[in-house]
Amino acid sequence: MKWLIALLIVVPALELALLIWAANNIGFFVTVAMIITTGLVGAFLAKKQGLKAVGDIQKAMSNFQPPGDNLLNAGFVLVGGVMLLTPGFISDAVGFSLLFTPTQKLYKPLVHRFIQKRMKNTRVIVG
Questions:
Q1: Per-residue DSSP letters for 105-117?
Q2: pLDDT tens-digit readout, 48-65
Q3: Which of 19, 41, 115, 126 has the greatest count of CB atoms below 10 A from its CB?
């Protein structure tokens, strides 16, 4: 929880500093155009990848397969799409990396480890 609070403070500060730096070095309007362009391209890619992820989930379910990995891919696409709509270069880089299968493979072990750790720490009381 402490790292989440730090992340919510540090990342926006870094994003703002990078945007100011870019505006000073390449120009205000070019920076704004880059932000708008990455938002539009990101929205298009997120929609395309999101529809593919939903199709993969439906295909797995129709074949009586568990949709676990496909659900994780859909989650990556959702988070990546939201990050691409958020102005900033750092969030755009992470957002784009979440949309594509080769880079999703880098994140999967981390997410699996996080889920397993959370499941291990959760107690179920029955009765």
A1: HHHHHHHHHHHHH
A2: 988 988 998 999 889 888
A3: 19
